[in-house]
Specification:
By secondary structure, the chain is of the alpha+beta class. It has four helices and six strands; from the N terminus they run H-H-E-E-E-H-E-H-E-E. A hairpin with a 5-residue loop joins strand 5 and strand 6.
Length: 151
Amino acid sequence: DILEIYESARKFMSDSGNPNQWGHTNPPASKTYDDINTGRLHVVCEEDKILGVFFFEIANDPTYAVIYGGNWLNDLPYGVIHRIAVSSDARGKGVAGFCFEYAFGKCKNLKIDTHKDNKPMQRSLEKNGFVKCGIIHLANGDERIAFQKTE
């Protein structure tokens, strides 16, 4: 079910003008299995149906060490959220907001990034109290817009 949600999310991103962030293969199944096995993959369920999935951990993300065109809101320990995906039948129902709320309940200092073409995620982040802080670079050099939410 999780792999199908990621596949649906890739199609949604492509259809909404963001074909490059995840392409046709990200996140790969191996990363998903690793996230499950390390307890960093979380699911949002309603009854027995998975509505959404996301990566969350309280740890430093090496790609967040340097930020360009701005600054992080603080240098305190933080939680990171990655790879949020919502099932096609749950889009627009607040699932991403629930993911953010859950993570914020675990850590009052969150960082996340997204592709410049991922307008739906940017709107969701801003709607849920995240502040645009600048640009970070992934390990492969790709740029991402960095956001942070803190108390």
